Every structure is written in C-alpha cells, then in structure tokens.
Amino acid sequence: MSTRCVFTPFNAEFPASNYPQLTLSNRRPVLAFDATTDETCYWTSIAPQGLTGALTLVVTYAMASATSGTVGLQAQIEAITDGDSVDTDSATSFDAVNNSASTTVPATAGFIDQITITLTNADSIAVADYFRLSLSRDADGSAVADTATGDLFVLGVELRDAA
Amino acid sequence: MAALTDQDRQRVTNGLMRYWSQLIEQVSGVTKSDVRAAVNAADTWADDNQAAYNTALPVTFRNNATTPQKSLTLAAVVLMRYNPELLKDIFGNLD
Predict the structure, then answer these.
(1) Cβ distance of A68 and B25 shorter than 8 Å
(2) Disruptive mutation site among A37, A38, A65 for chain B (greatest number of B CBs within 10 Å)
(3) CATH 2.60.120.260, domain A2-161, yes or no
(4) ∠ at Cα A128 (A122, A129), nearest 5°?
(5) What does the pLDDT profile of chain A (163 residues) look like in tens digits?
(6) What is the pTM of this model?
(7) Domain ranges of chain A
(8) B20 and chain A: CB distance < 8 Å anywhere?
C-alpha cells in the first residue's frame, strides 16, 4: 500500500453552493462540513506514476463539538484520460458514489479519527489522468447514518493504492 | 401563540448546532435527534406556559407591551443568566 496523493484544506476547490467552510481550528486549517446540509468539496490532481490497483481514501477529521453519534462520508472520482470526450467547460463525469461506513466519532471533540473509504467506483483512473476527488458529508443521512451534532472538521485526506 | 412549525423547529436545531460548532463548544453525549427533541420540548413548554408568563408580568407592562416585546424580555433575562456575551451581541452593549 502506497500513499499516492495528500490533499489539505488549502488545496480544496468548491462548488457554487453547499460547500464546507474553509476555517481554522486552533490555527489549524480545516474544512467544516455542516451537520444538516450535505456539503461537498473537490481536489484536483494528475494521477501519479506508479498508481495501481484498488484505491482507498483515508480522511483525517475531528468533530467541532460532538462527542457521540456517527458520521458518514461520501467520495467520488472523476478521471479524464488524454483524448476523452469530456467537455471540461460544461460537464462533469464523476463515477458513482463510494460510501464510508457510519463511523462513531471520538468521545472528545477535537480528537482526531480517520475514516477509510474504499474507492470501488474510481472511474477507471489510470496513470497521468487528470482527476478530481469529491468529498461530501452525508449530513442528511440519506445513504450513511450521520447522527453526530455540529461540524465535522476535515484536516487532511490521503489517497492510497495497492502497490 | 402557536407552537413553532416543524420547519422552524428544525431551523432552531440547525442554528444551535452551527452556533456551538463556531464556538468549538463541546456538546457532550447528544446526537442530532437529541438536540431536536430538546427544541421540541422547549417549544412545547413555552407554548404550555405562555399564559402563566403573561400573568406574571406587571399589569402595566402586560397590558401595553406587544407579544414580541414580552418575548424578548423573557429571552433577555434567560440569556443574561447563562450567556451574557450573546445578549451583548444582540443589544450591542450591556452597561
């Protein structure tokens, strides 16, 4: 298993609406995902040389205020290969959603936990693809139970492969 | 005054969670549904005890103040007890 990309809050990109706030928690940059509205952000990169096999995402987070309950995250990959016919001016082509498990939050707000999401649906990503990673909190619990109150702070995201 | 609508109760619930998150204030041992149940209970209590509160007010104020003014009076007293900083944000000053 190898680390292929690391994404931090300051590298995040945002949709026009319903995105996490880029803020600071004790001077640490975090993306604050709301507890009631599903919010999404993206990271863009080029699939690095050596990327191979099944991908997993490891999301490092802490809760702003909650000490009990669960959270659910969702990740998607959009991979565009040289010569593909995706019109990047106007279209997106994310693969199907990958759900995390419904994960119990740490018993103390501010303590870190890591959630692993298996990227079964990875849009056939291959070396040198231009790709985007989408990360959302399923705050309304439509796919993954999410019962914890308050914001979920994402501190960093690691993309791993099978090598 | 009628109890809040379901949507308004949810708005209060959402606002409370966002407020506590902004303060990085730990909310121990409760989930979203627990916060919502508390909002429901507080709203029901306010509804059930509206007449008693009105009766407790001095007659001149009771007969002349509007319902929003009486409501703000109660909210201000409770905030002064437990969250004077928030009350200061509302009033601009607490002198």
Answers:
(1) no
(2) A65
(3) yes
(4) 40
(5) 899 999 999 999 999 999 999 999 999 999 999 999 999 999 999 999 999 999 999 999 999 999 999 999 999 999 999 999 999 999 999 999 999 999 999 999 999 999 999 999 999 999 999 999 999 999 999 999 999 999 999 999 999 999 8
(6) 0.91
(7) 2-161
(8) yes
